[in-house]
Amino acid sequence: MKRVLTAVLALFVALFLLVPAERAKGAAAVPARPGQLAFPPLEYRPPNPADYRVQLKAGPVAYLVPDRELPLVNLTILVRTGDYLEPAGKEGVAGVTGNLLTRGGTKSMTAEALEEKLAFLAAQLNSAVSDTQGTVSLNLLSKDLDEGLGILREALTQPRFQDDKLALLKQQMLQQMQQRNDDSAEIEAREVNHLGYGESFWANHAPTAKSVESIDRTDVEAFHRRWFVPGNFVIAINGDFDRAAMIGKLEKLFAAWPFKGETPPPIPTETEMTKPGVYLVNKDVNQGRVSILLPGIMRDDPDYFPAAIMNDILGGGGFTSRLVNRIRTDEGLAYHAGSSLPGGTYYAPPMRALFQTKSRTVPYAVGIVFEEMKRIAAEPVSDEELDGTITGLIERFPRAFATKAQIAGTFAQDEFTGRYAKDPGYWKNHRAKIRAVTKADVQRAARRLLKPEQVRVLIIGQKDEILRGHPDHPERLIDFAGGNLMDWPLRDPLTMQQMAQPKPIEDSAK
Amino acid sequence: MKVLLLERHDDPSVSGGWVAHVGSANERPGITGIAHLFEHMMFKGTPTIGTKDAAKDLEIIAEQERVRDVMREEEAKMRAAYRRGELEDLTKPESKSERYRELEKEFNQLIQAQRDIQVKNEFDRIYRSAGGAGMNAFTMQDMTGYFINVPANKIELWMWMESERLLNPVFREFYAERDVVYEERRMRTESTPLGKFAETFNAMFFDAHPYHWPVIGWPSDVASISKAEADAFYNTFYAPQNITLILVGDFNSAKLLPQLERYFGRIPRGPNNAPDLVTQEIPQVAEKRMNAEAEANPQVQIQWHTVPFAHRDSYALDILGELLSGRTGRLYKGLVLGSEVATEANAGQMSLKWAGWFAAEGEAREGHTPEEVEQAIYAELEKLKSEAVPPEELQKVKNNFAAAEYRKLSSNQAILMQLIFNEGLGDWREFNNAAAQHQAVTADDVRRVASQYLTRENRAVATYTRKAN
């Protein structure tokens, strides 16, 4: 290991000084309004997935995007696995497997030797398993590619899952759990999922102290051998390589896999939102965190584009959007406000409006969100809002493919989630679908999604102060609860069971 | 005005930004947080952007200020009542005096009048509908940076918008935005498990230097900054001689320069240069310690006064930080895998423009205390002070610095941000030059800086234990 790397790369940045001077006579004046500027046309054609797609004989589909700008190679393997495949009582085993695949050594190298090797090469080898997907990634200097692929193959096929590293990871997970109720943002993220998908949905089966303690090496090995097989892989790779040569290397990487594995069952999609109402988690912080939830939409729903544009106008479009204008700019009630509507891939995540404001103005700001939701369903959006949103989405479209890593990554995701098989022209037709959305479409989507009687409001903050409201504003939480204003208890950080029974709040403020 | 241009033609877009050489270090007590509030105000528009009637808009703003002057007098009375113990908490709505409420009503009527002629958030709207993406800005101790990505054919729009807001900013909606910043403070500092303590630790670490106060400002200052103070701040620190423009992306520099002259050359040079920051931190004479009970796992944080950006010792201190950090670093091997007193531990040098520090931190493993972690960190540092780092280990760290030189070039946006930081900290050329300096660090350098800076009387220590329920 005497190899020395001395990359010193200078970027040739040009430096100029602008000197304010007497304006040259005859120099064109600066127009008074930007609307008076004329811009040259910009033709943009999105990359075509078929140009990069390769069906490897060894099983996986790969998207290869060569790029000689920098001497780096960036490879990601998407794996059909996920938390949803965890056996009951073994919650956490997917994450443990994902972590230890590259942190627990390989057959020929202890975990310590592997870490030293990677560090000396300045190579980044990482792995993880999340709810519906596993990821293994390698980013390294192209001069080390063959060595890196050798290590990757060994990690994928013969991981050591070293006992002391498993014990350490379990200890770290248990210690991390103790912080589950410390940060109001973390509590909010967790309870959004509980209200949005229901207590019994698999994605809410978080690891507990008991489940993590029960995980042993055989559990990890079994999870690995069951799902980490080339038939479950999709590959994204970009960087400094020759396409044909790389195809050969990938075939070798995935050939003659030493174990068979299984095709995973479909992802269960039976979500069930908790009953509409207001759910208040008492936490002693001087700013309430608020999430306002509604049933969401799938990304391939015929109404998806109208709904996405509606969301952009309502609260997804940053400063230009209505919620930010009113809650932040007009009223100064929050730093962060807005809404999101991520179209579901397997099941529909809730539509969500959110903000954080001082305890006493929480009910007032909730009222503003309700008002704006009602307004966008009741009245058509303005021409200016619709045109601005559509033009902006179309003009920003090239950002989706701004780097080679994005090209490879986006197409690999589409392959992984089945969008490519179902709709290979998705990106080619993307802008036309946006352009076709009308004001009536937007209002239809708003009426379908923004039903006041369907709203779930989640609030984390000082219960008494929030219930008290503000002397300048008549709104109180009970106004938004539809008769269901609930004290929503924190969960025991080690068991994830609520520490008390949820119970109705007697609102004394009114 | 200085301009940095870097052509990259791979993607039809331009990442454009500029850095004003001003941050919280240029503030004074009473107006802490103004650099950051000012950053927010730069998105409020110009005489033509944001209103349908510029003259009336300015009239209303002047009228608003007259009401605010009276409100400020009333605020002074409320502060006096608070000092006498007659008011419990100035932030409570019930603490407002009758007179103040009347004035607030009057002020809100003027806001209402202004809204009738306003075009809300038009600055953002114009960029967004033209394909602008990721528009944002940040404020640090030393700099304020503004950035956005635009399609390559919209570069003239960028020049129009940025030169216009530098030439003719209008600070409308000043007081609502001040409330927004107060909410930002609640969100980042007051409502997070460690935010308040980190602020106190920083204030304890710096005695004399303006880095003592938080970038977001002390709460009482944020609630009191006036528009007149913001105007004065703009006149001093947003003059073109205090600003660097940076563009990275798909353009032709030779063609672009005359246009840049045309748009930005119309901004007159400020009459005075921004004052140099003369206050230097006094040498620390004794170890400083604080113990916090927080909603967090037990942990320790240690900071030593070291050197600022581009100081000749900063490179060896960077290397020292990397030797200690990561899964093959000495802290992880010694404290997490070895003695098992910690679950994680890291260290690193932070070089700001006027001063810098070296930080080390670790979380105690269950059954162990922050003090044990602290002592274990010192033990690892002692080894680095007394024994030379083996060549292999030093090379490992240097290899990672070298690879990072490539990784930092992953996109226009990434390059723009690095140029903004380097220029804001003192000199964009460090973007190119630091790499050679890191490679030149020797084992002797590492031992020397560890011994010189990481001493007991030069450090501050925060230990955290979990607050009982």
How would you describe the overall organization of this protein?
The complex is a heterodimer of chains A (510) and B (469). Chain A has helices at 93-103, 111-121, 145-157, 163-177, 184-197, 209-213, 217-227, 243-254, 304-316, 322-330, 362-378, 383-396, 404-417, 419-422, 426-435, 439-449, 463-468, and strands at 14-17, 53-55, 61-66, 72-79, 124-129, 134-141, 233-239, 277-282, 287-294, 337-340, 351-358, 456-461, 485-487, 503-504. Chain A folds into 2 domains: 49-181 and 198-254, Cytochrome Bc1 Complex, Chain A, domain 1 (2-Layer Sandwich); 277-504, Metalloenzyme, LuxS/M16 peptidase-like (Cytochrome Bc1 Complex, Chain A, domain 1, 2-Layer Sandwich), CATH 3.30.830.10. With 510 residues, chain A is α+β, with helices and mostly antiparallel strands. In chain A, the strands form 2 sheets. Chain A has a 7-stranded mixed beta sheet with strand order 10-11-9-12-8-13-14, with helices on both faces. In chain A, strands 2-3-7-4-6-5 form a 6-stranded mixed beta sheet, sandwiched between helices. In chain A, strand 2 (53-55) and strand 3 form a beta hairpin. Chain B has 3 domains: 1-43 and 123-275, Cytochrome Bc1 Complex, Chain A, domain 1 (2-Layer Sandwich); 51-118; 288-466, Metalloenzyme, LuxS/M16 peptidase-like (Cytochrome Bc1 Complex, Chain A, domain 1, 2-Layer Sandwich), CATH 3.30.830.10. The longest helix of chain B has 30 residues, at 54-83. With 469 residues, chain B is an alpha+beta fold. Chain B has helices at residues 34-41, 54-83, 98-117, 122-129, 155-167, 174-190, 195-205, 219-222, 227-237, 253-264, 314-324, 330-338, 370-386, 391-407, 412-425, 430-439, 443-453, and strands spanning 2-7, 13-20, 133-139, 144-151, 243-249, 288-294, 299-305, 342-351, 356-364, 459-466. The mean pLDDT of chain B is 96. In chain B, the strands form 2 sheets. Chain B has a 5-stranded mixed beta sheet with strand order 1-5-2-4-3, sandwiched between helices. The interface between A and B is large, with 97 and 109 residues. Strand 1 (14-17) of chain A pairs antiparallel with strand 1 of chain B, so a sheet runs across the interface.
